[in-house]
Amino acid sequence: MTEKAAVGILAYGSYVPYWRLSRSTIRAATGVGRGSGTRAVAGYDEDSTTLAVEAARDALRTSPIPAQECGGLVLATSSPVYADKTNATALHAALGLPQDAHVADAAGAVRSGIAALLSAMYRPSATLVALSDLRSGPSGSSDEARGGDGAAAFVVGDAGGGELVAELIGVGSASREFLDRWKAPGEPWSATWEERFGEDLYRELGVASVDHALKQAGISVTDVDHLAVTGLSDRAAGRLGRDVGVDRAKVADDLVDRIGNCGAAHPGLLLAAVLDAVGPDQVVAVTVLADGADTLLFRTSPVHRPRVRGVEEQIRGGTGEVSYVDFLTWRGLVERQQPRRPDPDRAVAPATNRQLDWKFGFTCSACLSCGTRHLPPQQVCLRCGTVDSMAPTRLADTPATIATYTVDHLAFSLAPPVVGAVVDFDGGGRFMCELTDLAVDGLAVGQRVGMSFRRVSTTGGIHNYFWKATPLNEERPA
């Protein structure tokens, strides 16, 4: 009998937004709530799709499998921006994946994140899995304060695609139908049952899933070096390590105090944070308590592909403070006075389709005769006049420098003022674009920036996406 090839993680990435909302700010505004720390907040121009793009770009930077060789893409989220339309196709276009890649959503439930990651391990070709979510709740609620926004991504497959960062060695699941947390389609918030009811059930199911995974892997609980637990019951998650007999020192920080619980993306963020810190030949367990329990066991390999910005660096880099009113505005819960100007035009399907590589992939044209880059792409070279002699060149991952900028206090924005800049890309190419995720006071000509996939506007139910520039510095390197 042919021995099964090892499967697991070939590369991984993460994305924690720049903005933070203090729980003390929520308490001061609403008069209710408790707890310290902050939650991560997606910017006014971010959603589950844009967060997933940034995490996936991070994973592909260290992947032995280039984007053009990924055979599949899955987006898992409980907060999809579209219904009745595949959200992952926007990621496919933004990342430049091959046309024959299988693209799908795993949307609707918090458990979909870990489910997508597990199922992708056994696909016939290397697959990119993006876990992304925005979580919140009614004003002053625990869901609002302890929710969070973030994303993680993994390139998974067998060892034939390159040496694994972490091999999957065991899986355990325990499922049971019970009413703990639910949301009817179209409702803005989840409803929950009394917390102690779900806590007891989750502790029982969590122990069962860990036991099943250990049995499949042929190891004991004492062999587990790191345990990361998350889910819909904070209290059950906090006690699972003790319930299964894992030493407290081996239980990873759940990150909730610092960025909140990021729903379907949170197990991915915890796993990425652990992989950032561990050495080779370590057993890592990840357990998710959501409508049952799932436990994945990994053994890390000697391979270490250092990331420029790990989860810890991304958390520390979140220095943008957002007010409570701005947070509600960005979420569409507070409507402010609009400027007396026409609404943005709705994105047009035929035009978008014609310029797909530019609009989603940020792919310019480079003259084959003189090398001049054109943003947006052109058929006639502006320098040497050569016609139809262009090579597509993707600049989404190329750093740039601010040549000049302007601060506009009159143009409408959910996060005024609007900052426009002319940027020069390394290797050539000049482009005028909007800057985002920045403190205007620290802006300067000569500052380094990188491109980020963002939502420009939403009109008529259509989300219009394009690329903006974000500052690069010691806390936020390229």
What can you see in these coordinates?
- The protein is an alpha+beta fold and 478 residues long.
- Helices cover 24% and strands 29% of the residues.
- It is built from 13 helices and 22 strands.
- It has helices spanning 23-30, 48-61, 88-95, 112-120, 142-146, 195-217, 234-244, 256-259, 266-277, 311-316, 324-330, 349-354, 356-359, and strands spanning 7-15, 19-22, 38-41, 72-77, 102-107, 127-134, 149-158, 166-174, 181-182, 191-192, 226-231, 283-289, 293-300, 320-321, 363-367, 373-374, 390-394, 400-408, 418-425, 430-435, 448-459, 462-471.
- The chain has a 9-stranded mixed sheet with strand order 5-4-6-7-1-8-13-12-11, with helices on both faces.
- Strand 9 and strand 10 form a beta hairpin.
- Helix 2 crosses helix 3.
- The protein is globular.
- The model has no long low-confidence stretch (mean pLDDT 93).
Short description:
This protein is α+β, with helices and mostly antiparallel strands and about 475 residues long.
Unreliable sequence segments: none
* Overall pLDDT score: 93
- Estimate the strand proportion: 25-35%
Radius of gyration: 23 Å
Helix content: 10-25%
Largest sheet: 9 strands, mixed
* Helical/strand content category: alpha+beta
Largest sheet strand order? 5-4-6-7-1-8-13-12-11
Tally of contiguous helical segments: 13
Q: What would the principal axes of the Cα set say about the shape?
A: globular
Counting DSSP E segments of at least 2 residues, the number of strands comes to 22
How far is it from the N-terminal to the C-terminal residue, by CA?
A: 47 Å
